[in-house]
Amino acid sequence: MFRFLKKLARDRRGNAIVIVAGVFPLFVGAAGLATDTIQWTLWKRQLQRAADSAAISGVYTSLKTDTDTAVTAAVTHDLTLNLHTWMALNATPTVTRLGTSGQMRNRVSVELQVKQSLPFSSMFMTAAPTIIARATAASVPSGGEYCVIGTDRSAAVTGIEISGSTYLDLGTCSLIANSANPTGAASNGTSSTNGGSGSTVKAASLDAAGGVNYSSQWQVSSYNPYSSPIDDPFSGFQSNIPSSSSGCNKTGTINKVGSTKDYNRSTDTATDTVCLSGDQTIQGDVVLGPATYVIDAGNLTMNTNGASLTCDGCTIILTNFSNPANTGTVSLTGGSISLKPPRPVYGSDGTTVTSTIGNQTWKGIVLYQDPRASDNGGTGQNKINGNSDLSVQGAVYFGNQSLQYVGGGSTTAACLQVVAKRVNFGGNSKIKAGSQCSGFGMSGLGGTRRVRLVA
Known about the structure:
Layout: H1 2-10, H2 15-64, H3 68-82, E1 94-98, E2 105-115, E3 130-143, E4 145-150, E5 160-162, E6 167-169, E7 173-177, E8 186-187, E9 200-208, E10 219-224, E11 250-252, E12 263-265, E13 273-277, E14 280-281, E15 285-288, E16 292-296, E17 300-302, E18 308-312, E19 315-319, E20 330-332, E21 336-340, E22 343-346, E23 353-357, E24 365-369, E25 382-385, E26 390-392, E27 394-406, E28 416-425, E29 430-432, E30 448-453
Parallel strand pairs: 4-7, 4-28, 5-8, 5-28, 6-9, 6-29, 7-9, 9-10, 11-13, 12-15, 13-16, 14-17, 15-18, 16-19, 17-20, 18-21, 19-24, 20-25, 21-26, 24-27, 25-27, 27-28
Antiparallel strand pairs: 1-2, 2-3, 3-30, 22-23
Helix pairs in contact: 2-3
């Protein structure tokens, strides 16, 4: 027997079979482990995709209904649609609403877990591994600044409407409607993609907290429905409005009086606050100085061809000292308009302020309606409708009422910002505005935001 074994040990025939037989368990083990690893990787990818989608869904919901209940419900619903692993989660999804961090807002974090044993690895593992996927999404800036803001957050209104044969060139600026209207928060006047076929719109983006109507006729770089609403940038200026006529150091009128229609108030200075009581109807040539003009309990109206309203460095404020809810409206629908707001004057270096024009408390604002003015709904509560002689620079503000803006000038305004509860651009108008508001000492109005994964 020992002789046979020695002979067998020296025999070189069939050695490959012996070697293969010896390492065969390693091949089987490697194949089994590779198969299980591939399955774990697939589950991880499927789980990560579901966590990513759920976190994004949570942020979108947070932008509309910022409560734990609403966000968790949105995450749960999204998982019923996008969790594509064949096994159920082994733990309740962890949904965490995180605070603002830098430019990141409405952060939502989602953690998911699955745990399932596999045929090969279960032979030598006492417990199946837990596969975890985490994702965090947030609302983040995506560039651009707003020139037009519709502040109304109702889901029942159109916040911005662009119709007719409007020519609206905002350059690198964007427009945003805070309306949560799911189908037409920002509208081209129709639900068709060919809507607004008679109009031209040039802008960086058209955003809305609700739905946005797309138009194939417009040159808009991006359409961003369900964006974060933007806060009213000018509501805080209400505290600068005089509470009574005692806050004015001058009184006067620009209203027609008998045969008198022309008023030259160019001698008013930046230190002057001028109270104008009651309706102010312009039918002649009115020149204002670089002062602050407060119209108490009256409307500002100009609807006469041949009339004109001119100022360089003024701010016109509408309020009502005794009852702000009854603040008057603006209707500038005829004549020539040339308005520039208070602003700093920069030196040749473009950064050093060498002088100022007008009252810097109202820097950048040329028309301001008290935000406590009552809103009776509808469009056209305030109107700025011009022709080739329309030039309005700076900010026009109607925070609690609508504005119909029908421009006509082809000259590029260095800066135009329109903030109103609802904004309508319509008619046969031409509006061309630049985005150089920094030259007026004005900050950009917010900026485009999008929901993105951040971790």
